[in-house]
Amino acid sequence: MITNNSRMVSATFLVSAFVGCGFAQGPSGPTKITLDQAIEMALRQNHALRATRTTVAQNQALEIQANVRPNPTLFGDWQYLPLYFPEGGFFTYLQNATQADIGLSYTFERGQKRQHRLQAAKDTTAVSRAQVADNERTLTFQVAQLFINVQLAQSTLELAEQDLASFQNTVNVSQKQFSDGGASENDFLKVKLQLLTFQQDVEQAKLAKVQALSDLRQQLGYESVPAEYDIAGEFAYEPMTMRLDELQAKALENRPDLKVAQLGVSAATSQYELAKANGKQDVTVSGNYTHASGASAVTFSVSIPLPIFDRNQGNIAQTRIAMSQAGEQHSGVRGQVLTDVRDAYEGVTESDRVLQYYHSGYLETSKKSRDISEYAYRRGAATLLDFLDAERSFRTTQLAYRQALAGYLTALEQLREAVGSRRL
Asked: Which is nearest to 276 in space by CA: 124, 112, 119, 121?
């Protein structure tokens, strides 16, 4: 017999296993997700994308409707019914003086209309699938961009906290120098007031991270992660090794919007074939049983419209022009794909050059200058103005480097979006 306690233990185990498989979580810290997990959750839980995916199911339902045959028509009538009780008896009157008809008719479609309707509906469904894939590509870039924003905010916060802790030590040293008579009260107050700037930097960095996490959560699907969550992953340089021609060739194979344009040509062609089929006139066959004046008879008839005026020529001409339009759109999208890849590639290349400037020595130089100025100031060999200027230059350089790194990673994500693949 299974007890309630056993059920609770089993449920707890399942929840723990789910959390362990889905997220990285510290012993006591918030839930943490990586970039790959964030993209996976967004593709699964983003409400706008899920709403777009319903268009595929809607078009599949229209395929069912496109494949149905016409309904047969059942008709009947009873004529010359009396308004008063006739002489000779009511039933005798109905038998000899009234007329009753009952019949069945069916329209046979010519030109394979049903098959062409079905093909046109299937082509429309294929276009909608490719459009969903293109929305997934766009959403993936948006999530990656927001994830980088969180990484930048986290890195900026860590820098601000390090600067605050370092400058707090400087304030403590200045206070001791002032107490020992080695520094003026004015210099000590200037250093102490400068501490406010570092405290503000920390608070602003905290706010930026909270807002970045909130924006990312919206794209992931608001309910997919808890309110207190964080990200995991290194905020670091990733080299790009593929050549431009390789990336453009890969984009022509992978870009879903180009596939949308290709399928649009097929869809336009199927609409043209359907328009031609609709120009064929359908044949209606009917059978009728008639009872009139005591006699019974059967009538068969065949009818077909004469295509003298309406041969669906307007729709045929319109769909023929639409085929040319779809072909031009496909050529335009193909050129846009190549342009997007080239622009994104140049963006990555330029951002990479900027990062190399920092890696070539500027970061180390700014840190060394700050450390020397701080060491000299604490021993009275440098003025307060020199020290604060070196501290300001160090902070500016470090922040600019982090922003340049975020810009490079974002440009790399733009290149992935332009290629239509996350593997470069």
From this structure: 112
